[in-house]
């Protein structure tokens, strides 16, 4: 007997139900398309900065995270987090896609700045490239963005992907916090290896 698929609306409602998602979904929802992209990217950039504050030696993160320093840009933070094994290839890819969407929205004077809405071809194409969105499409090809190719659908897909990426980063931060706390409480001989 074939297993019936979970209703798609339940998955969406479940994703919207987490405390982080409820707050940030509302923040993103209340923004214009351009604002949604800029705020979402800023939140992820900030989370990467917080991750580096956890994993780097005391006092180094503040210096390295300054705008003109080694980890001062979203791109550098993404690449360094990947190089250090803090994020996997899938999230490395997705964070760079979000960065590209953000750059299109932020650089309004440039070629794509005026076409950054979720109804624009460049933006919806980049949203399609997000691994999270590809997985949703594979599991639920009738999911709204793929069925109607609507602005609202692509915006929802983007916001859900942002929630997934943010949740992943929060999990990585928590793992490193726990490890650091365990190491700090461990006897000296255990800390030395």
Structure description:
- The chain is an all-alpha fold and 193 residues long.
- The protein has a single domain (23-177), classed as Nucleotidyltransferases  domain 2 (Four Helix Bundle (Hemerythrin (Met), subunit A), Up-down Bundle).
- It is 72% helix and 0% strand.
- The chain contains eleven helices and no strands.
- The protein has helices spanning 8-17, 19-29, 33-55, 60-64, 74-83, 89-106, 121-129, 131-139, 144-148, 151-185, 188-191.
- Helix 2 (19-29) packs across helix 10 (151-185), helix 3 (33-55) crosses helix 5 (74-83) and helix 3 crosses helix 6.
- The radius of gyration is 19 Å and the shape is globular.
- It starts with 7 loop residues before the first helix and ends with a helix.
- The model is unreliable at 1-18 (pLDDT under 50).
